Amino acid sequence: MSVASILDERPELTELHAHVGGAVDPAIMWSIAHQQGIRLPTKDYWQFVELITVTHPDKVNNLAEYDLIFRWTELIQSSPLAIERSVYEIIGGAYRKCNITTLELRFNPMKRNREGEQDLDHIITAAIRGQDRALLEYPQIRSGLILMMDRTFPLELNAIIVEKALRYRSRGVIGIDIAGPPNPDFSYREHQHLVERAREGGLGVTIHTGEEGRIEDMWEVVEYLRPDRIGHGILSAYDERLMATVRAQGIVLEICPISNLRTHAVRDIEELRTIIHTLRAHDVKFTINTDGPQMLQTSVVKEYQLLLEHGIFSDDDVRAAIATAYEASFLTRLCHI
Ligand SMILES: [Zn+2]
Fold first, then answer.
1. What spacing in Å lies between the alpha carbon of 288 and ligand 1's midpoint?
2. Ligand 1 center to residue 314 CA distance, Å?
3. If you measure from the C-alpha of residue 179 to the centroid of ligand 1, how many angstroms do you get, rounded to a whole number?
């Protein structure tokens, strides 16, 4: 049961970290898959829901297993029609369900083009069209797209993604990210020039790191890529010097509590409490997000409720996190340019 809180007043919320691959309602994914005649491993809807969601804490053991679930959602979203409908449905749904009025959605267009069979520009403009259609219906919302590079891609492919993000900057693409399955051979540092190019072109920069694995990766990101925001970054709570650097650079963390618990990046509620209290004690700015509300069966509201129920957050903390997220949105920043 949820405790009475500021959330009962249905405040306007911001979601900064949501993957398109984890944010579409399973019923809509089912419909899209059938519309396109995709061969699924099951003809039973409820088995399909099991396939594309993380319904209980024991379902995935780590980040790599979690990434495997995205293979299905990315396959289903791999056409202009599918990505347009996906983006359209996410934006309207987030507003209707949670009163999200500032929304950033991220996806890797190269994981939506059936390995080059579909044209990348068609995929990206279809996503933009989906966003435009949703914003016409719900003019209260501000929304923007983040194009993701991948830790398993060679530099040349990631360079193309940055070029595409720059090309569509004036049409609804607001930033870049690096994500994807963990890869021991990947070098953030090698991507420095791409990130610089994106930044100079007016794009926001957020980078997935410090979720699990090596803290050295997060150091590399902070020192060489100097992002505006970091996806997760929770490992910094165990490194005083890193927290000081993150704070000094004004980097905002995008924390996704339920995602971290489901992927076991965070052991339990007590570890989550320690991380959040440590970051707060060191004045590290952070926001609360879902990572993928449908895949993880959560929402921004549920994330705040979890923190309230366990006494990790007070109403004032919720208010502060909402304000921080709004201010840290690339949409807010771009308005001021
Ligand atoms: Zn993520």
1. 12
2. 25
3. 7
Looking at residue 311, what DSSP letter applies? T
DSSP assignment letter at 110: G
* Mean pLDDT score across all residues of the chain: 95
Ligand 1 ion: nearby residues, β-carbon < 5 Å: 231, 291
Kindly list the strands in the beta sheet with 173-179, ordered across the sheet, starting from the edge strand earlier in the chain.
13-19, 100-107, 142-150, 173-179, 204-209, 229-232, 252-255, 286-288
Residue 259 Cα to ligand 1 midpoint, Å, equals: 9
Going from the Cα of 157 to the center of ligand 1, the distance in angstroms, rounded, reads: 20
Rounded average pLDDT over 136-141 = 98
* pLDDT value of residue 337: 45
- In whole angstroms, give the CA distance from residue 318 to residue 138: 25
Residue 147 Cα to ligand 1 midpoint, Å, equals: 12
Whether residue 28 contacts residue 84, with contact meaning beta carbons closer than 8 Å, is answered with no
Measured in Å, residue 209 CA sits from the centre of ligand 1 at: 9
**What is the b/e burial string over 97-127, where b = at least 16 CB atoms within 10 angstroms of the residue's CB?**
ebbbbbbbbbbbbbbbbeeeebebebbbbbb
**Cα 316 to ligand 1 centroid, rounded to whole Å:** 26
**Beta strands 204-209 and 229-232: pairing type?**
parallel
User: pLDDT tier at 1 (50, 70, 90 boundaries)?
Assistant: low
Q: Where are the domains of the chain?
A: 6-335
Provide mean pLDDT across the span 60-86: 91
Q: Does domain 6-335 have CATH number 3.90.550.10?
A: no
Range list of H helices, 252-314: 257-262, 269-281, 300-309
How remote is the CA of residue 213 from the centroid of ligand 1, in Å?
A: 15
